[in-house]
């Protein structure tokens, strides 16, 4: 899809052809919740072989409906952008039942909050990243993600030390795909430093036997004041 010019009849026909294939429609439906999924999982959802799914995914990528996120050796597929999701919702799939994959039982504490390469992951990590991007406190650029002065001021107001908070402005982070939420949380040096500061401030504490991080009641209240909320 190209926002620079309106669709001509041939482009519209191609989009219609992509949606007309049930397996491709199932793949798009599975990704309309904003998650990123590997090819094998999408093949299972669509009920096709890995080779067939690969061909469908290539066509959807070439057609501009999907984007690709590569993390190490792993490849994850997502809708290309919010415009594609809105277009699918409004024009193509308004009454379809969304398809979700069967997942193995997971430790709810690890799903809620945990460390990932020393930075915050899980529901809380994703919520923080999305909330601060939405507020304009985080900015994505060619170097990754950076914290803006407005965020530093808010963190000082929330009780963090001014000197350590100012140091965050000189660090860069990166979007890291969360394996339980299938959305991005904040990784890299900036993510590590923010997580460490939350531990030092008593907003989080470490679980004794695994990678889970336990938000304290005070931490949840202070994070909520900073726009970061998760279900109790």
Automatic annotation (TrEMBL):
Gene3D superfamilies: Winged helix-like DNA-binding domain superfamily/Winged helix DNA-binding domain
Pfam family, one: HTH_20
CDD domains: HTH_ARSR
Designated name of the protein: Transcriptional regulator
PANTHER family from the UniProt entry: TRANSCRIPTIONAL REGULATOR-RELATED (PTHR39168), TRANSCRIPTIONAL REGULATORY PROTEIN (PTHR39168:SF1)
Domain HTH arsR-type, chain residue ranges per copy: 4-100
InterPro entries the record matches: ArsR-like_HTH, HTH_ArsR_DNA-bd_dom, HTH_Metal-responsive_Reg, WH-like_DNA-bd_sf, WH_DNA-bd_sf
